[in-house]
C-alpha cells in the first residue's frame, strides 16, 4: 500500500480523543464545546420537517444546487443588513457547518508554503484543516483587547490569509474591541492580506456592548463565515460563507468536487423553522442560560483557584481560558484532574508550537451547580499541584 503523504503531519483532533476519556458519566467535563441540549428546539424542528415534506414533497429529497437553498441565503443576507453589512444572497454559499467553509477557504485561498497568519492561541479545527494544505503558519498573540495589531501589521505583509475569530474566540473567550476591529480592517486593506473572519459565536453576547463583525469596518474584500450550530443546532450541520464573487467562485467549484451540495432537506427544515419561530427570542434564551453559567464559573474560579492562575472573563460565547504560572504543565494537570473526576482541554493543540501552560474551560454544557462542584474539584487539584 502506498498512502499519500499529505495527512502524515496533520494532527488528530486532540479534543475528539479527549472526549472519549471524558464521556464517562461520573466526570464533570468542561472539555467539550457542546451547546446545551436543552437549547435545541426539538418540537419546532419536528414540525418544520413535517411541513417541508408535506409542502415540497419529493423536491425536498432531490439533488439541488451547490450554492444552497435560495430562501435561506436570502434570510442570511437580510440578517446581515440589520448589522450594517450590505450583501446579496449571491454572496452567500451554504456549507456543511462552518468547518466545511474552512476547508473550502483553504482550497481556494491557501497555497502549499503560503503564509497564513493565525491568532495565538487559535481555533484548533482551523489549524487542523489548514495543515492539510501545508501552509507556513505565523502566529500573532492575542491581548485582552483582541489581536496584537503591531504584530499583525508585521506578519500580514506577505501573507495570503489572516484567520480570526474576533468575537468570543475559541479557545480564549477574548473579543476584539471596536478600535482593534477598525485597525484590523485597515491593516488588511494596507497589506492585501485576506481576512477570513469566523463568527459562530457573535450573537451569543451576554454582557457589554454589541459589536458588528470586522467585515462591517472593512474596505478591502474579506471572507465572513457563519454557523447555525451555536444558535439552533450543530447536528443540522449548517453554516455559510459570505464572500465576494472572486473568492466564492473557486469555493463553489471546490464544494462541487467535495460533496456536490449541503443537504437540501436540512436547509429547507432550517428555513422553515426560521420562518415559523422567533429566532431572536430563542437566541435570547440561550444567552440568558450561558450568561448565568459563565457567571457561575467566574464566581467559582474566584473562590477556588489559587491567585497565580490567570483567567479570561468572557462577555459571550462558550469558553474561558486559564493560564498557569510559567513552567507548569496543563497536560500533567489534566491527568491529575481526571483522577478527581473533572476534565478540561489542555491548551497545547491550540498552538502551532508546543506551548503547554494554558487550558480551556467550556461553560455552555453544564448547570451552575455542576460548574460550582467541578471548579471546586479543579481548584483543589491546582492547589495540590502548585503546592499551595
Ligand atoms: N469555527 C469555530 C471558531 C468553532 O468554534 C467551531 C465549532 N467548534 C467551528 C468553526 C465549526 O462549527 P460548525 O462546523 O458546527 O459550524
From TrEMBL:
Keyword Transferase on entry: yes
The keyword Transferase is annotated on this UniProt entry: yes
Alphabetically ordered keywords of this record: Aminotransferase, Pyridoxal phosphate, Transferase
Aminotransferase class I/classII large domain ranges (all copies): 36-378
Annotated InterPro entries: Aminotransferase_I/II_large (IPR004839), Class-I_PLP-dep_aminotransf (IPR050859), PyrdxlP-dep_Trfase (IPR015424), PyrdxlP-dep_Trfase_major (IPR015421), PyrdxlP-dep_Trfase_small (IPR015422)
Single GO MF descriptor: transaminase activity
A Pfam match: Aminotran_1_2
Required co-factors: pyridoxal 5'-phosphate
Name by which UniProt lists this protein: PLP-dependent aminotransferase family protein
Organism taxonomic ancestry: Bacteria, Pseudomonadati, Thermodesulfobacteriota, Desulfovibrionia, Desulfovibrionales
Amino acid at each position: 500500500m502506498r498512502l499519500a503523504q499529505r495527512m502524515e503531519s496533520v494532527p488528530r483532533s486532540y479534543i475528539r480523543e479527549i472526549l472519549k476519556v471524558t464521556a464517562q458519566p461520573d466526570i464533570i467535563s468542561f472539555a467539550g464545546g457542546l451547546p446545551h441540549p436543552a437549547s435545541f428546539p426539538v418540537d419546532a424542528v419536528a414540525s418544520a420537517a413535517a411541513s417541508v415534506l408535506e409542502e415540497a414533497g419529493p423536491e425536498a429529497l432531490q439533488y439541488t444546487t451547490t450554492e444552497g437553498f435560495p430562501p435561506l441565503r436570502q434570510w442570511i443576507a437580510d440578517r446581515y443588513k440589520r448589522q450594517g453589512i450590505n450583501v446579496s444572497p449571491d454572496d452567500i454559499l451554504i456549507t456543511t457547518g462552518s468547518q466545511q467553509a474552512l476547508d473550502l477557504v483553504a482550497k481556494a485561498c491557501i497555497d502549499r508554503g503560503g503564509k497564513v497568519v493565525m491568532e495565538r492561541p487559535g481555533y484548533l479545527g482551523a489549524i487542523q484543516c489548514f495543515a492539510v494544505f501545508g501552509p507556513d503558519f505565523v502566529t500573532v498573540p492575542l491581548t485582552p483587547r483582541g489581536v496584537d495589531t503591531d504584530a499583525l501589521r508585521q506578519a500580514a505583509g506577505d501573507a495570503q490569509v489572516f484567520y480570526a475569530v474576533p468575537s468570543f474566540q475559541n479557545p480564549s473567550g477574548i473579543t476584539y474591541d471596536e478600535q482593534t476591529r477598525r485597525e484590523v480592517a485597515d491593516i488588511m486593506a494596507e497589506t492585501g492580506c485576506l481576512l477570513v473572519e469566523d463568527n459562530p459565536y457573535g450573537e451569543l453576547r451576554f454582557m457589554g456592548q454589541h459589536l458588528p463583525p470586522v467585515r462591517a469596518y472593512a474596505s478591502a474584500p474579506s471572507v465572513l463565515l457563519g454557523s447555525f450550530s451555536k444558535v439552533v443546532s450543530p447536528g443540522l450541520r449548517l453554516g455559510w460563507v459570505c464572500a465576494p464573487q472572486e473568492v466564492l467562485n473557486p469555493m463553489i467549484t471546490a464544494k462541487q468536487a467535495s460533496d456536490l451540495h449541503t443537504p437540501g432537506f436540512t436547509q429547507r427544515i432550517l428555513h422553515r423553522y426560521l420562518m415559523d419561530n422567533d429566532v431572536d427570542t430563542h437566541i435570547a434564551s440561550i444567552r440568558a442560560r450561558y450568561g448565568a453559567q459563565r457567571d457561575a464559573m467566574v464566581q467559582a474560579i474566584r473562590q477556588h483557584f489559587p491567585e497565580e492562575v490567570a483567567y479570561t472573563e468572557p462577555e459571550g460565547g462558550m469558553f474561558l481560558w486559564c493560564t498557569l504560572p510559567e513552567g507548569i504543565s496543563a497536560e500533567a494537570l489534566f491527568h491529575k484532574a481526571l483522577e478527581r473526576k473533572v476534565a478540561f482541554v489542555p491548551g497545547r493543540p491550540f498552538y502551532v508550537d508546543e506551548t503547554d501552560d494554558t487550558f480551556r474551560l467550556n461553560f455552555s454544557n453544564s448547570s451552575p451547580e455542576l460548574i460550582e462542584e467541578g471548579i471546586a474539584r479543579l481548584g483543589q487539584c491546582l492547589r495540590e499541584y502548585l503546592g499551595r
